[in-house]
Structures are given as C-alpha cells and as structure tokens.
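Researcher: I'd like a structural prediction for the single chain below. Treat it as a standalone chain; there are no partners to consider.
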Amino acid sequence: MAALTGADTATSRADTRVTDTRTFDLSTSKVRELNAALHALGASGVGGVGGASGQPSGLARPSDRVAGGVADVVPAAFEVLRPQGAHAIAAGVNAPVTIDIRGHVGYYCAGMNDGATVVVHGNAGTGVAENMMSGLVRVRGDASQSAGATAHGGLLVIEGSASMRCGISMKGVDIVVGGDIGPMSAFMAQAGRLVVCGDAGDGLGDSIYEARIYVRGKVGSLGADCVEKPMRDEHRAELAELLTAAGLGEPGKPGEPGEQGYDPAEFRRYGSARTLYHFAAHNSDAY
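Model: Treating it as a single chain, here is the predicted structure.
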C-alpha cells in the first residue's frame, strides 16, 4: 500500500488532516492502488464533479469532509513516480485533483478523465485521454495513436507529436499538438477543435462532421468530405485562445520544450464540406 512520503506536508487540527501531495511509486505500488485512491476522491464528493454539464469546482475544505469526528486525509495533489510504461494510470478520475506522472506511461492514461489535471512528464501510449469529459491532460513528450479518441470535453495538450488517428471520433474535446500528427487524424470528428502546430498526415478529417481543424504546417492529404475553409477573425480569436491555454500562444518566447509560441495568422482551417451527411448510393466510393 502506498504511503505518504517524507516529502509530503501536513496540517493537523483536532478533527482534520490535510496533505499537500500524496506520492505513489509504481515500482513498489500497483496501479490499482493508485487508481483506487484517486477514485475515492470522486466517490466522496471532493470538490464536486465537472463533467459535460459543468466545470469542476475547487477541492473541498477539510472541514467539509469530517464524519463522526474521524479525520479525513484530503490530498490536494498526487505524484506518480517510476510509472514504467504501465497502462491505465489515472484512468476514470472524476475529481478536480492535480496528478503529476514522472515518466512514460502506457495505454489509456487519464482515460475517461472528468475534472482532473493530469501531467505526463514523458511520452504516452495508445489512447491518452480517451473519452475524456472535462479537465486538462498534458503530455510533455510524444503520444501514440488515438490520442483523445471519442473525448467529449476538456483540453488535451501534446507538446511533442502525436501518431495516427489523433482525435478520432472526437465529440467536443479541444486538442492542441505542438508537433506533427499522423494519418487519419480527426476521422469522423463530430465536435471540438484540433490544433496542429506542425504537419498533418494523409487522410486528415476523413468523414468529418462539425469539428474544426487548424494546421500550421503541411497537410499530406485531406480525407473524404474535408475541405480547407477561410480563416476569419472569429477563428483567429478562437485559435489564439486555444494556443494560450496550451502554453503555445506567445510568439517570440524562448524555444524551450512546450514553450514556443505561434501566431494564429500562420494557420489554415479545415472542416466539413457537408456533402456526406446522408448516405447516397452514388457517393458510396467516397466513404
């Protein structure tokens, strides 16, 4: 069982105990133990849950969680050491807690996230932030395929590059990629915004619905029913807001990893031509 480390700080009262950070070392603890501790925050109603219907509120005050005179330990943040590429780290979190993961992660890290802030200080495997509902997931390195797949909300920031199918079937999430993305990204993207500061692979936006795509670099090819669209002032303002939220919106900033800024004027916009919304036999070859 993971314990609070010596680096953790605590403030004690007669009936409460608050910790600033709880640390899990996955070389000695199991992912299941970490996730159980994270899920317990949501189960006990810490700070409320954001989700699709609202934004997450702040962490509850310690006195809000005292029951029967027994003190609760309320971590304000979690730190995960030596993740060693384990799968499903911080999956299914539904409380507004901050989670720092110090290393590379495997499949489905921060999947189904609903309100948490998850920072991966390394690379991420398949399906990072898959089906996210709200919150922030930041990958300091690169991400494998299907990043942000089916996600409904929140912000996913990949400071490096993302592999194929980035944003596949996205349903409202905002995704900002500091590098390149692979082929078939934003396939069947229904809603949300995908921002690519580098190049995009072939088949971008294939069978796209109403998602918006912004690409700064080259596009290998556009998928079925995806076309380039004009960049108006409203789109430049929207893009500037997304870049700023991702930490990439200040041109001229020193070129440290994840801190290079970009000008919205350098991007092009892509979206649906709306010709394949309804199936027609004469369009069968286009699907």
